[in-house]
Amino acid sequence: MLKHRGFPGRLPGTDHQFTIRRANKKGATKLVARERYRDRSAADRRADAAFLSALIEHFDDQPFERGNLDAGRLSWLLGREVVAVGKLDPASYDQVLRVDLKKAEAAFPEIFADDSPGFEWDDAGDWDDDEDAD
């Protein structure tokens, strides 16, 4: 499993996880496109925006491997702002994805605004490599 060094591990000040520390021995958690209903909490909407902002900052519109990115967080964007490159293998850490910038800007205009305050990343997700010894 590819570890995205420098990618934020979570939304600062919350428990909203963006990356995982190690691969699941039973296999990758499946990606499943989730419906975002209007009654989602403000914290969940902010986590979606922050995660998408981090994806854009880290990868822009270039293809990237799923790797250690959290399946749950990806699933909230899958099929809309984040799309599979080629055929989707929902249970693969090697799945290649990319951000659709047009759909991302339409759904989250606040992260593209010139006066956007951005996010203060306090956790870059660079954990010790001792977990790789599993």
Outline of this structure?
This protein has helices at residues 42-59, 71-75, 101-107; strands at residues 64-65, 82-84, 96-99. By secondary structure, the chain is α+β, with helices and mostly antiparallel strands. The longest helix is centred in the middle third of the chain and has 18 residues, at 42-59.
Could you walk me through the main structural features you see in this protein, from its secondary elements to its overall organization?
- The protein is α+β, with helices and mostly antiparallel strands.
- It has one domain.
- It has three helices and three strands.
- The longest helix has 18 residues, at 42-59.
- The relative contact order is 0.26.
Q: What kind of sheet is the major sheet?
A: 3 strands, antiparallel
Q: What is the string of SSEs from the N terminus onward? A: HEHEEH
Q: How many individual helices? A: 3
Question: Nearest-angstrom radius of gyration?
Answer: 14 Å
**How many strand elements?**
3
Whole-number average pLDDT? Answer: 86
What is the count of distinct domains? 1
Shape: globular
Q: How far is it from the N-terminal to the C-terminal residue, by CA?
A: 12 Å
- Binned, the helix content reads 10-25%
Q: Strands of the largest sheet, in order across it?
A: 1-3-2
Q: Structural class of the secondary elements?
A: alpha+beta
Our estimate of the beta-strand percent is: 5-15%
| Low-confidence region ranges | 123-134
